[in-house]
Each structure stands twice: as structure tokens, then as C-alpha cells.
Amino acid sequence: MKAVVQRVLEARVRVDGETVGEIGPGLLVLVGVGQEDAASDAEQLAAKIARLRIFEDDAGKMNRSLVDVGGGLLAVSQFTLHADTKRGNRPSFISAMPPGAARPLFDAFVAAARGEGVPVSTGRFGADMKIELVADGPVTILLDTARG
């Protein structure tokens, strides 16, 4: 699984003008499920994100995790993270898992994050979503379970 993790002051997802998920301070996480991913990837990614020390401590050092600061997580499914542009300018998405198989793994990621004690909101799987965020830092981290 791939993820783009952004530290935010707030974030929300809208579908057809309706807010379907929102958080205050925490992390906006775009999650891409690939053909080779399994439930273990969802659990590994959720644990990594919950414990990723990218929030400042009292000394101003990035030394606190999402769990430490009690922040929220807004998870948004994002198959385009698996775009391959090696053969030109039109991306190929063949390494992304098809929606029917990806949905249970995305849901497993959400469940695993909640199991880590993180309050989680989500977008709407497969919908045309509009995402609003106020970046904090900005701090943006790329994660890929295939790379450890």
C-alpha cells in the first residue's frame, strides 16, 4: 500500500457538496491499494501512521505521534498513487487493485487505524471527492509498505 501523509490543522472531504468526512488537527492520508497488497499491508501502514513521530514536542522537535497528540485521521482512497508514467505522458493504473478488491483492504486500513486508538473519518470510496485542507508545516511524508 502507498500513502501520502499530510499533517493538517484541519481537513474535510465533500461529495456532491456534502461533507462526508472531516477532522481538526491531525493527518490527511491518501491511501493507494496495489495489486500485490494484502491485509497485512493495511495493518502495517495503519500502525506506522499512528506512531509516525511528526508532531512537535514542547521543545519544537518532531517527536510526537498522532496517538500522542490525540489527533484525527482523514483517510481517502486514492488509486492514482499507483500511476505509472514510464511509457509516456498518459498514466497507467494497472498496478492499482481493482475497486471491488481494493475496498476491503482500504476498510481494513481504517479498522486497523481505529484499533490503534486513532479517531478516523473517511471520504467516500470510489466517489468524485473534493478535498479541502489547511496544511501544517507543511509536513508531507510518502510511505510504501513494499519498501518497508
Walk me through what this model shows.
This protein has 148 residues and is of the alpha/beta class. The protein has three helices and eight strands, in the order βββαββαβαββ. It has one domain (2-143): D-tyrosyl-trna(Tyr) Deacylase, Chain: A (3-Layer(bba) Sandwich), CATH 3.50.80. Helix content is 23%, strand content 38%. Strands 1, 2, 3, 6, 7 and 8 form a six-stranded mixed sheet that branches. The chain has a two-stranded antiparallel sheet with strand order 4-5. α3 links the parallel β6 and β7 (120-122). The protein is globular. The mean pLDDT is 96.
Looking at this protein, list some descriptive labels.
148 residues, alpha/beta, D-tyrosyl-trna(Tyr) Deacylase, Chain: A, two-stranded antiparallel sheet, 8 strands, 23% helix
Produce the secondary structure layout.
Blueprint: E1 2-15, E2 18-23, E3 26-32, H1 39-51, E4 55-56, E5 62-64, H2 66-69, E6 72-77, H3 99-115, E7 120-122, E8 130-144
CATH topology: D-tyrosyl-trna(Tyr) Deacylase, Chain: A
Helix content range: 10-25%
End-to-end gap: 10 Å
Q: Quickly give the structural class.
A: alpha/beta
The global form is globular
Strand element count: 8
Number of helices: 3
Could you state the order of secondary-structure elements as H and E? EEEHEEHEHEE
Q: Stretches where pLDDT falls below 50 for ≥5 residues?
A: none
- Assembly state: single chain
The CATH architecture classification is 3-Layer(bba) Sandwich
Give the overall average pLDDT: 96
Q: What's the alpha carbon Rg, rounded to whole Å? A: 15 Å
User: Which range does the strand content fall in?
Assistant: 35-45%
Query: Quick one: biggest sheet?
Result: 6 strands, mixed
Task: Give the tally of structural domains.
Answer: 1
- Under CATH at level 1, the class stands as Alpha Beta
